Amino acid sequence: MTLDICRPGSQALNSQGEESTPASIWQALTGIPITDELLEWPADLFALTNVILERSEAFRFVLSPPCGVEWPPPRFPNVPAQVIPVNYLRWDLVTPEADEDEWGGRNVDAPRVRIISMNAVDYRAGSIVMGEVVNEDTIPAFINVNAVLIGQNGKAIDEESSFDKIAHVLLPKQVSPYRIDFPHVALLDVKNVHMDVKATLVPASADPVIGVMDQKKETNALGGDVLSGTLLNESGQVVNVPHVIATFYDNNGKVIWVSDGYVDRALYPQTPEPFAVQIPRAVADKVQNYHVVVNQYSITKQ
């Protein structure tokens, strides 16, 4: 049984009788505008999203969409029938016991990985540690980078990991950016940073291959600086959750920013999809080069 509920549309008006916008609502509630810096922090972005959804009453569309509108909207491209050859490299992990967890070989050495750069910067009221890590081995590795901030008194004041701001699975000789956020520790209070990278042997493959095309720095509709481009899934399987990580370098080749974002739809075979990641205004003018990697999460991928 289908129940159709139609509700007349309404517009929110401010005290001057003008139509409210997300920017005007946020300004009225917080006293600050929506900026690139605000959108960079997950907590602020969540608060902004919650305010917009609550004031616009968009929550109700999940259960009661407007007449003639499907929610969520369909996002399945019409992919033509085709044959895509599979000729990628693959590494399997064979364990002596059938029920042993394949994530991490117990009787083999960990892959050789190394942090090749690190840069700590102030950002808003906190600090960020960023750089790059390389898999120097001939086998794939699952990696995670950790940082411990040491205070002026020589004691640890905070510890964080790269979480999802890294390409966790690195094939041999691959390089990944990493970024570790410390939103509540100013760099002025830090005397030293202790870095640590953990690596575990994992099964992996070079498929799916995701091409990154038409990359360019530009200004978006809100006036913010972004790196935009197009992703092309060159394999024959669907990438359900594409995650883009961009590394930005200055004219000396130093990592000065790492930005990431999730594409809002799956990557179907041979179907281009646009992407864009934010660049803080203070960083944008210093960028001389950039590099993009794509994490690929698929339902069929273990």
List the helices and strands and how they pair.
Blueprint: H1 22-30, H2 36-40, H3 42-56, E1 90-91, E2 113-123, E3 126-135, E4 141-151, E5 156-161, E6 169-170, E7 175-182, E8 190-201, E9 204-205, E10 210-219, E11 225-233, E12 241-249, E13 255-262, E14 273-279, H4 281-284, E15 289-297
Antiparallel strand pairs: 1-9, 2-3, 3-7, 4-5, 4-6, 4-8, 10-11, 11-14, 12-13, 12-15
Question: Would you kindly provide a written description of the structure presented here, covering whatever features stand out?
Answer:
The chain has 302 residues and is mostly beta strands. It has 3 domains: 1-74, no CATH class; 90-204, Immunoglobulin-like (Sandwich), CATH 2.60.40; 207-297, Immunoglobulin-like. The chain is built from 4 helices and 15 strands. Strands 4, 5, 6 and 8 form a 4-stranded antiparallel beta sheet that branches. A 3-stranded antiparallel beta sheet has the order 2-3-7, with no helix packed on it. A hairpin with a 4-residue loop joins strand 4 and strand 5. The protein is globular, with a radius of gyration of 23 Å. The model is unreliable at 1-13 (pLDDT under 50).
